[in-house]
Each structure stands twice: as C-alpha cells, then as structure tokens.
Amino acid sequence: MPITGEFQVRDGESLLSSGVITSSDDTLLETDQHTKKGSVLEGKPDTEVINVNEVYRELILRGYEYGPFFQGIRRASVDSRDTDIRWDGRWISYLDTVLQMCLLSRPGTHQSLPVLLESVIIDPRVHPAQPAEGTEEFETIPGSWDPVLDIVAAGGVEIRGSHTIRSSRRLTHNSPNVEEYTFAPYMDPSPSERSAPVVSKALMNYSDACFEFSRQGMKRWLAEDKDNLLPNKQEIVEALEMANKIASTPETASNYASAKATLEALVKSKNGHGLPNHGVFEMLDMTFSEPLQGDYWETLRKKLHVVRSYLWDDPIIAAMESPDIIKFVLETVADNVPQQVVEILEVGAARGSYYRQAIPKALDYLSVKDWRYTIADKFFVEDAVDYPVKILQFDPLDPANFPEAQNESCDLLVLKWTLHMEVDLDEAITGFSKMIKPGGFLLVEENVERLPTLFPIKAIVSASLGGHGGPEGDRSFGCFYTDAQWTAFFKRHGFEQVMHRHDGFSASLFLLRKPLVPITPPVIVNVDDLQCSWLEEVQARCAELRDSPKDARLWLVAKTELSGILGFFRSLTWEVGIDKLRCIQICDSSPGSKLPEITADSADFKELVRKDMAYNIYKNGKWGSYRGFVVPEAVRQKERESNFVYADWLSAGDISSLHWFNSPLKIGHHNGMLGSKLAQQLETETCYIYYAGLNLRDVMLANGTIQRDILPDETFFKEGVLGIEFSGRKSSGKRVMGLCPPPALASSVQCPVSSLWTVPDHWTLEEAATVPLAYATAYYCLVVVGGLQKGKTVFIHAGTSTVGQGPEWTQLYDLVQTGIQSGVVKPLKRAVFGMDKIVDAFKTVEAQKETAKVLVKIRDEEAQKLCQTPKTSFSAVHRTCFDPTKSYVLVGGMGGMGLETAHWMVLRGAKKILLTSRSGIRTGYQARKISFLRQLGVDIEVLAISLNNRKSADELLQHALKMGPVGGIFNIATALHDDNFSDFTRDVFVKALDSKVTTSLLLDEISREKPVRDTLDHFVMYSSIVASHGHMGQTNYAFGNSVLEKICERRKRDGLPATVPQWASIADVGIVAQMGNQVIITRKFPQRFFNVLNVFDYMMSSAAVVTTSYVLIERSMIAAGGEESMVDQVLKAVGKILGIKNVSTVDGDKEFIDMGVDSLMSVEIKQALERDVDLVISTKDIQLMTFNGLKSLIEGN
Ligand SMILES: NC(=O)c1ccc[n+]([C@@H]2O[C@H](COP(=O)([O-])OP(=O)(O)OC[C@H]3O[C@@H](n4cnc5c(N)ncnc54)[C@H](OP(=O)(O)O)[C@@H]3O)[C@@H](O)[C@H]2O)c1
Fold first, then answer.
1. Which one, 44, 400, 687, 719, has least CB within 10 Å?
2. Angstrom distance (rounded) from CA 347 to CA 378
3. Among 173, 143, 167, 194, which residue's Cα sits nearest to residue 36?
4. Is residue 1040 lining ligand 1, measured as CB closer than 6 Å?
5. Nearest to 1119 by CA among 307, 327, 287, 371
6. Per the UniProt record, which residue ranges are transmembrane (predicted)?
7. Which atom of ligand 1 is nearest to the CA of 1022?
8. What distance in Å separates the CA atoms of residue 221 and residue 289, rounded to the nearest whole number?
9. 387-430 pLDDT, tens digit each
10. Per-residue exposure over 600-635, b if at least 16 CB sit within 10 Å of its own CB, e if not
C-alpha cells in the first residue's frame, strides 16, 4: 500500500478526525523561537497577568473543566499573546494545553470546540528534554499567540489556523430551584382578607359540581331506600338538609342525571383536563350507581376500599398538599425541633396518606434537617412499602392499644381525616397527645366546610359514624366539626394552635403545639441598633445559655423594620442551637396600626412565650415568619403579554427551544441598532412587521451550525440574531419591505431608511416579504459582482446569499427598485407559518424540502393601503433588557460576580457601565474582562471608591450621570469577615456591614432623589442564602444581607424598583470559588454561574422583592431503621434517570440498553456517576451496564 500520510481516527462507525501526517528529517521549527525556556511573565505586575486559577476559572465559566494534570497554562498575559506553559513530560496534556491557548485567545462566554487545525507541527528536537524520572519538577516553556497569523506555539509544538465552532452541548448541572422569600403569616388571613383563593376557578367549579352531584345523589338514595338499607341514614338526612341550606340553587333546579352530566362534562372539558384526577367524582359515581338492594352495602364498601387511592390525588383532597403549605408547615416544625433528625409519625395513614405525596415532595426542598418517617394504621399499608417509611400496624381508633413504644416518640404527629372518625374525641386526642414529645407538634387536616360533598362516601365506608355531642356542640352528621369547634376543642386539650390554613373551599389544616411551659424567666435583649452596640451583651447571654436550665430562653428583639435580626438569628442558631433562642421582629409598617408590646410583662409577649416559637415576625398585623415559596419552572417560563417581541432560542443549538421574548423596544428603545456605530451613521425608522422572511442563516444560527459570534459586533444586540428581512408598515402607516440588522424575526424593528422599499399597491405584504433578500442577493451576485449582461448564462447555487454593504449598496438598492418598477422583480412562491408555528417554519427551511420562501406571519394585513398599525399584544417569555442610552452602576462590580453580571448586561443591551470597588483594577483577570467588554463597543469605566458617606455617594453619582441617565444601580459588593460569634469583636463584626448596610442605605438614598429616581429601572442588591438559612461563622454577613433585603422591601412598598437575588454559593466565580471552597450551605450545591443566569430573568421580574436560587443536593428521607448506603443512593439515582421507582424490583443483570436507555440518558448517568462517586465510564459502556455490575463497580471503586 502506498504511504500517503492520510489518517483517520474513528470510534466504531463514526469518524472523529482526519488529516495528513508527514515526517521530516529537517528541523521544522525555528530553533531560537522554540527552544526558549523559562517564564516570560514572572515578575510582571498583577494587572498584566492572569494566573493559573484565573485562566481555568475563565475556562470553567465557558464550560471547560480541566483537571489538575491538564491545567498546563501557568500564567497568561491579559491579551493572551504570551503564556507560561508547564512541561512535565506528559505529551498528551501538553498538546492539549497548546490547544487551550487557542481557546484562551478567543474570549467569550461560550464553549467552542476546535474542529479544524490547518497544521500542527511537532518537533521534539527543539522541545525541552523529559524531566528526570521520578521528579515532580516541571519546566516552564514560554508560549505565544500571533493574532495576525493565527499561530500558537510553545516549545516544539506549533498550531496554525485553528478553527472552532460553538459547542451546542447544553451545560448540564442540576437545574436550580427558585423560591420567593417572603413573609408568611402563621394564621390564615380571614376569608374576607384572602387576596386570592388557594384553589383555582376550575377547581372551584369542579368542587361545586361534586357538591351538587352529591346532593342529588343523596336525595335519590333517600327516595329509593324503601327497605332502610342505607347505613347512617339519619346522618344522610341531616347532610341533605345542610346541602339544601348552603346550596346556592334550590334542590329542584337540577336532578341526579343532570348533576351527573354536568360533572362528567366538566371532567372531560378543557378546564377539567387541567385537573388530572377526579377520584371524588369517580367514587361518588360508584357509590350512587350501586343499586340499593340485597347486600349492596357490603359489596360497595369493599369496592370503595379497593379504589380508595383514587381519592388521594383528587385536587379537592390534595389542595392542602401544595408544597407551599406543607413546606411551610414542615419548615416551621424543623425550626423548632432542636435535634438534627425530626421524627414524623403519621397515624391513620391509609386514609390520610400524607406520606405518599405531600410530605416527600416538601421534604425534597427542605434542607437543614433530616427526617425519619413512620406510618401507622389498622391495616398494613401495603403500598407504603415503596416509600422510605417505617410501617407500623395498630388501630388508631383504639387509643387503648397504642403501642407503648410510641409514647412521646415523635416531633410531629400527622392526622389527616382521622380525628373526626373517632367516636370519643376526648379519649382519642388524649391518646394521640401521648405520642408527641413535649414541645412537639400535631398536624391535623379536617374537612370543615361543604361537608355534604364527601359525606355519602363516608356514610358508606363506616358502619356508624362518631358520636354526637361534646361540649362544643353537635358534630355535623355525627362526625364533623367546624373550624371554630376544632379550635375550641384543641384549646380545651391544652394544645397551642400555632398555624392554621384553610384551602379556600372545604378543608382546614391545624398545626398545634404540645406545650412545654417554661418556668425560668425569659431574658430579652434588644438588637435594633445597626451599629451593633448590643453585640457584647448577646455574646454574654449566649454564653450563659450553655449552663442554664432547659426551659431558659433568650429572646432577641428588633422593633424596627430595618434590622438584620432574621439572618443574624438564623446564623446564630447554627452556633448556639435553637432550643433556648427565640427571636422577635416587629416590622409592621401599616400607618397607625397598633403594634404588639414586647416587655417581660406584656400580654403580647406572654402569648409568644406560651407558644414558644423560635421565629416571631410581626408584619401586616399578623405574626408569622419569612419563608421560601418554590416557583415551579413552568411558572418561571410562563409567557406574559408584551407589545414588542422577537424570536430567539432558549438553548443554543436547539431549534425546538425557539420562543418569543419581549424585546428591548418595550423599554422605549429599538433593537440592537440603537447605540451602535451603524445607527449613528444611518438614518433609521421604526417599522411594524407583518411578515418576516426566514433564511438559511437564521436556521444555521438556530441549529448551531454557525455561531452568533461570527456576526458583526456592533450591528445588533447579542441575544436577538434571527431575521434580517421583513414586510410591514412604517409609523406613518405606509407599507414597506426591507432588509435590516437582526432581530427582524420580531414584531417591530428599527430599519435603516436606505434599505426600505415601498411596497407596490398591487402586492400584498405577504408577497412583499418574499422579495428583499432574494432579489438583492440575485442582483448583487449577477450584476454587481458577476457583471451579468444580456446573452450570458449563469449557474445558481443555493449558498450564495451575501449582500454587500457600502457604496455598492446604493447601486444594489436602485437595481431592486428599478426591477420592482419594471416588473422584473416579482413576489416568490411562499409558505406561511403563524407565530405559534415558528419551530415548524425553521424545520421546513432546515429540511430544505420547501422551495418556496418561508415566512412567519406576525399580524394580519389591513385592507387599507395606508393605515396605522394597531397596538398588538403578543405572548412572550420575559427577558431583562437594558437601555443602551442609560448608565448602569455596579458597586462591587470588579468582583467575580460583578464582572459576569456586567457581561450579561452587555448581552442584554447595556452599553454604559460604571464598575466600582474600593481598590479599582487589581488583577489581570479584571483587566482582561474589561478590555474584552470594551472590544464589544461598551463604554466601561472603573471607579475606585469606598461608599461610606454621602460625599462619596455623590461622587459616584456624578460619575455615572456623566456617562448617561442612571438606568440601574446594583450592589454586588461584599467583604467577608467571618468568625465564631463568641469571638467577634465589634470592630470586626461591623466591617462586614460596610458593603451591605452602609452602601445600600446610601444607594437607596441617592436613588430616591432627582434625577435618578426619574430614570431608574433597576435597583438590585445581591444577597446570600445565608440570610435565609444561616451559616456558621457568618452572623455578621447574614445580618448585613438581611438589612439590605429590608431596605429593598421598604423601597418596593414605596413603589420604587427593588430586587434582591439571594444566591447560594457560586462554584465558578466570586468569593467562594476564589477561596477554593466548595461550600455546601444547608445542602445547597454551589451553583454554576450559567445556572444563575438561567433564573436571573425570572428573579428580575418577580413581584417578590427577595428571590432565592439554589441547586439542591438530591436527597430522600432517611428510611426508618438506618441510613441509606452510598451504593443504594447511587443506584436509586440511576434508577430515577431510567424511570424506575424501585431498583430492587428489576432484573439486576439486565443491560441498561434493554431498559430503554438512550444516549441522553447515558450522558446523564455518566454525569451522575462522575459527580457522586467519581466513577468515570464511557457512555457506550453505560449502555451495556447492569445494576449488579454497577453495584460491584461502585463497591470496588
Ligand atoms: N460568590 C458567591 O458564592 C456568593 C454567594 C452568595 C451571595 N453572593 C453575593 O454576591 C455578591 C458578589 O460576590 P462575589 O462573589 O462577586 O464577591 P467578590 O468576588 O469578593 O467581589 C466583591 C467585590 O466587592 C468589592 N467591595 C468589597 N467591599 C466593598 C465596599 N465597601 N464598597 C465597594 N466595593 C466593595 C470588592 O473589591 P474591593 O475589595 O477592591 O473593594 C470586590 O470587587 C455579594 O453581594 C455576595 O454577598 C456571592
């Protein structure tokens, strides 16, 4: 075979790379340049060099994760031209390092992959020798990058002409949760105060229809029950009477058949589909359908027992199971249980079954504590074996037989739908109470309204219902109490009611506390002072707590809104424990409202002492606490109405993720044209788009074949790159078609007047949209460049679509114009897609099957040739936009998150940014980032300033105003001064408050004054999850962040912009990453910065002032009886990816591929294994893996 030097590298069938390899006896590389050794950068000032950590931090941000062996760039100059490279004798990592130099030479935010190298020369003869065997020493070799010739070289390696493409790989990391962190009252607002019902309108309609069906069913039953076969007949009569009393229509207004038909129709309707399960309807239907004869009762009872699980997921039954409610309940319990593992016991679990859904779901979000869950019922609850719960079997209705071992065994006893079944409630509650530890909690859910709805089912399943009577009056139909009756009942049995929720239509949830009455007099310390004069006293009191009696309590009290007590207290409990600490904050701002009095003898304080709750925040006339309410992803991405939209993708390279986003036109400026050089040179006009043309460039951008970065920098804003031609109307109402910078796949566009043509009267706008690019391209290629003349023939290729700029443009414009007038230019064949079919439109162009021009229709064309475009509303995903004409101030903007935030703002339109810190540019990394942003055409200024008085704030303001009217103020500053609380001196403690409290107060002050208040759109203060969850050693940092949150809450109330993102630790930039600490705060993973950006838009637009973003460490409840082993946890995680609930039930020797694992799943499994157990397996091997094989691999790993 002749030696050609051609090579291919393949993985199975797929070609990985190909090329030509040659060898030479001659020296290939210039020796003097390539034989140099030693550092070229050592000793250079810090601001000119980026060090190894900064190099790889930048690369991590872009999605490259190099391990220690591959981190071969020791230093680089800010412009990447010079590098110090490590040579340790490992050729593979060395060659990779030289490739990394290519990547470093192209800064940005994305990951690029080298796809073509014009040449690689490796000349070992000029390369330093291998380090001596066994030595850990390494040699430093200078590397260089020549941007003109595009050559990178180091030692005996030289790469010429490296071409990269943007990777469309989605950066995968556990997706972040978002919570809105707001005040939540312990007690439900009264019905008249409820702002919105807990339940949706669809659910309310469904509940009403079930009620009516039940009423008509009972009526028919009673009429047909000649032989007295109905059990609990007297109660059914009562239930029907009550139903008639509370129904809004007379009983004769419908009948059984019509009520059933209404309910059936509702269940099948669109709204009904929104409610996935209709167990109440199905069970009522089953109950009423059984003919009233013979032993029907037994038969029906058995049938209902079998299908009882239908009820569990019915939204009427599950309304209280909303994670918001249950999470709040469980967090409240956790806040008040001193030990690390909280014991939950659910009694009557077969009926209530909180263990199935509600509690596990809520526990997923709960972080700080562990939970052990036990369930108990008369029957062995078989389906509970799939859940991580311990199962006990005893009759909860027979308190005499409670197992001894359950005495004072739980921190939380759960009774859902259980108490009302008791004949003797007094005896029952006494028995249940015994199971709860002193100071523990009882959670009761009961139906208190619309009782007749479910009553027929209840009447059938129980032979006889609970006893009438009791001191609170009759129990409705022998079993139910109202809200007020339950409250009185619990009080009589010594329980403190600490929380109450009503679902808005039928059920109530009571959280009760079994009291542990303190005798030792409480100590109260006021912690209002923002200068922290109370510090020493609190330290001394905390020290005393150690040896004080169990019932001693230290009450920290803040009576002002602007206090950091909440964060401070959370952090303090990490160090001192929760058992003896209590906090009170009065942050009520309602004018004239009577505030609680907190003194040792006041009735208000005594009530708090009785309830003994750890957190007592008084706001809006209610006691409560601050809580995070989870915002599901679907809600975060919910579209909102906007008059200005443009199309873009949610994930790069994924056409199916194309969506409409609100455009910057919304905030009064135009597309990316504004503020750009092009816009300054050209006269532009706003056009309302009716049809937008799609071209191959749009599809290639959307599917990742070409990258946004190759497009000219200054002609558009970076996040809207789709669409460059359209037809529509100018503001004057005149019909036009045109070519313009993207995004023209939009509802409006700012178009250069020089590329707008008037649409001839005999064309529709649909026809016109097919013309601009096609004819401009044709004229350009054939006439302008090709010099086409009469009689010549041409070959037309689909790829020719570049349109020239500059002087040629006028010629081209005229050619098209003349062509329109002469009739040569004619509308083309077209295929039109609606805005909701945008993905189909792209796929049609991508498939290249359609020869017609693909258009996206934005609006209907009016019949008139001249008319104004009416205001139209479109659905769009929210994206934050910044105004290029305004200035944005980022205090602390020189830090890790500050620089990345600035970069993101630039991508969203900001062009004038003022970054501040106390010391200005200190590192090469900062210099590099700023230089990169300047290259993007952004006016970035750096101001070294310490914001500690009004004078410095004014100086900052003047600087910003010189750049432009102030559009946004961000406080991203922080300086940590961590220590154990007991060791803090006041000086050190308050140092952490400078950047959080002093700075934020000053920024708040200047932003409330003219001229800033008239132009300010964003006031964003970065806080930390430490403020809501606390952390060891950070009482001062948490205090500062809490104050900052309060400042923003006050602003919001005053109608001013205010946003506080509460970040969990960030893994790749900023203070935590810099410390090299992967701090896991309260089971929250350090999150990657791209995750931050994924949720930032929501946080910026949320109605809540404070929103938290974090990545939760996956966990499940600890199965009673022992911790889950690491192997089990990993197998379970893999099972979850495969959609297997219980891995022990599948064949352990079956290969994953046979269980349906696809390539995406195998990548997910690969990542899980690498992340959790550091096990690296190729995706191919994963497909062939079995559970047994994996188990032994992990065990042996
Ligand atoms: N990184 C994380 O994991 C994380 C997690 C949760 C919350 N956060 C929050 O995110 C924000 C940014 O954190 P980061 O990680 O980017 O911190 P960083 O890298 O340390 O940057 C903080 C910046 O603030 C500046 N600064 C400190 N005190 C200042 C003051 N009094 N006035 C003006 N500038 C001051 C620092 O520069 P000088 O020292 O030169 O002044 C530095 O440039 C902070 O608010 C932090 O609380 C961060």
1. 400
2. 9
3. 143
4. no
5. 371
6. none
7. 45
8. 10
9. 888 888 888 767 667 777 778 889 999 998 888 888 888 888 99
10. eeeebbeebbebbbbbbbbbeebbbbbbbbbbeeee
